[in-house]
Amino acid sequence: MPQVDLEEIMAYLRGTNERRTYPLWQEDDCLAFIARGREYRSEFHLNPSFEMQYSLKGPLHLHWRTPEGKEQVSVVPEGHCLYQAPMVPHSPRFGPDAFQLVIERKRRPGEIDRFHWYCPACDNFLHEETFVVADYGADPVSRAYDNFFSSMEFRTCRKCGTVMPDR
């Protein structure tokens, strides 16, 4: 049974600007990774799996949307964990020196992850990116961000004209 040195992985992620996640394992029924700082997040992720998020270092501010579309924030202090049901639109935000251990179910064939952005001025829906996540090491969040932020059309609100600022 392999052991993982979480302190060593956090030190590695602190020392690189190229990576914000470190996959620990990816099995058929479970995947786990360490995530560093998500202060830049602006999208809401709809994951077809459950998620368990454990605050290793620093607090997590989990922005999420109710079934009616209202944005809420749950604060998960260091040393605490949160369980999240599938398909809850969520946006985990935490400082650049904070770390989360995330455990979820590996995606089943045909499952799609969705990433939604909303207007910062009027909260109107802006854009959706979709990905089939076969390998979390491929960093689907960064790919979704690249697609969204490279398009002025995607970032411009059709209701009020506000342009989502670049990252």
From TrEMBL:
TM region(s), chain numbering: none
UniProt KW keywords: Dioxygenase, Iron, Metal-binding, Oxidoreductase, Pyridine nucleotide biosynthesis
InterPro entries xrefs: 3hydroanth_dOase, RmlC-like_jellyroll, RmlC_Cupin_sf
Cofactor: Fe(2+)
Pfam families assigned to the protein according to its UniProt record, in alphabetical order: 3-HAO (PF06052)
Stated role: Catalyzes the oxidative ring opening of 3-hydroxyanthranilate to 2-amino-3-carboxymuconate semialdehyde, which spontaneously cyclizes to quinolinate.
Protein name as annotated: 3-hydroxybutyryl-CoA dehydratase
Source organism: Ramlibacter terrae
